[in-house]
């Protein structure tokens, strides 16, 4: 294997602007007028560049800041962005210990408060950028009244009794929904 392969991906990780937010790596300079969300994903999922993450970020900017529960937080990109946008308290949960540590590190690097753990916490709004089957399995247990979901293709829609779609956004064949309890 070539030397330095573990960090070779960094050459391809660049910042993106999503609404008021710029999401990018610590080795790039954010625009002066943007809400800077600096993310070093390490070995966790989530740089901010994928269409599903961008859709979630767009929807987060369309709702009033409130308490937030980020399920499957990965690198913490959505938790950190939410905290930067005024959401509080922000709870980030994941089953992957690497994701939890990466989220803690990214929250600290951005100077925001994100409570990180493995247990679901009640909040006014949830966000889940994970596979459709996991979204559908988690929705009945989610201790929120509204949630932003993504991580699935445009042709797919979460189908869970007790929830209805309020808003849908699509980008590059991917979709995100703002769901409310019916």
Describe this structure in words.
- With 182 residues, the chain is an alpha/beta fold.
- The chain has a single domain (5-181), classed as Vaccinia Virus protein VP39 (Rossmann fold, 3-Layer(aba) Sandwich).
- The protein is built from four helices and ten strands.
- The protein has helices spanning 51-60, 77-84, 97-110, 132-138, and strands at residues 16-18, 21-24, 35-38, 68-71, 90-93, 115-117, 125-129, 146-153, 163-171, 174-181.
- A seven-stranded mixed sheet has the order 6-5-4-7-8-10-9, covered by helices on one side. A three-stranded mixed sheet has the order 1-2-3.
- α1 packs parallel to α2 (77-84) and α2 packs parallel to α3 (97-110).
- The longest helix is centred in the middle third of the chain and has 14 residues, at 97-110.
- It is globular, with a radius of gyration of 16 Å.
- The protein starts with 15 loop residues before the first strand and ends with a strand.
CATH architecture: 3-Layer(aba) Sandwich
Topology, number of strands: 10
CATH superfamily grouping: Vaccinia Virus protein VP39
CATH topology: Rossmann fold
The total tally of domains equals 1
Radius of gyration over all CA atoms, rounded: 16 Å
Quote the average pLDDT. Answer: 91
Structure classification: alpha/beta
Query: Strand arrangement, largest sheet?
Result: 6-5-4-7-8-10-9
The CATH class: Alpha Beta
Shape by Cα distribution: globular
Q: What percentage of amino acids are in beta strands? A: 25-35%
Instruction: Specify the helix fraction band.
Output: 10-25%
């Amino acid at each position: 294997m070539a030397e330095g392969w573990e960090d070779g991906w960094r050459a391809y990780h660049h910042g993106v602007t999503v609404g008021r937010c710029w999401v990018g790596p610590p080795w790039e300079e954010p625009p002066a007028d943007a809400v800077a969300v600096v993310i070093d994903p390490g070995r966790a999922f989530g740089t901010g560049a994928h269409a599903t993450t961008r859709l979630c970020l767009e929807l987060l900017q369309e709702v009033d800041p409130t308490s937030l529960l980020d399920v499957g937080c990965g690198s913490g990109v959505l938790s950190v962005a939410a905290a930067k946008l005024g959401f509080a308290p922000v709870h980030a949960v994941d089953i992957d210990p690497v994701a939890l540590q990466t989220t803690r590190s990214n929250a600290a690097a951005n100077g925001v408060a994100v409570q990180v753990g493995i247990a679901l916490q009640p909040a006014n709004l949830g966000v889940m950028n994970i596979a459709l089957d996991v979204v559908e399995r988690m929705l009945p247990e989610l201790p929120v009244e509204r949630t932003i979901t993504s991580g699935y293709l445009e042709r797919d829609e979460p189908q869970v009794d007790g929830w209805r779609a309020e808003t849908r956004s699509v980008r590059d064949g991917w979709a995100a929904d703002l769901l409310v309890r019916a």
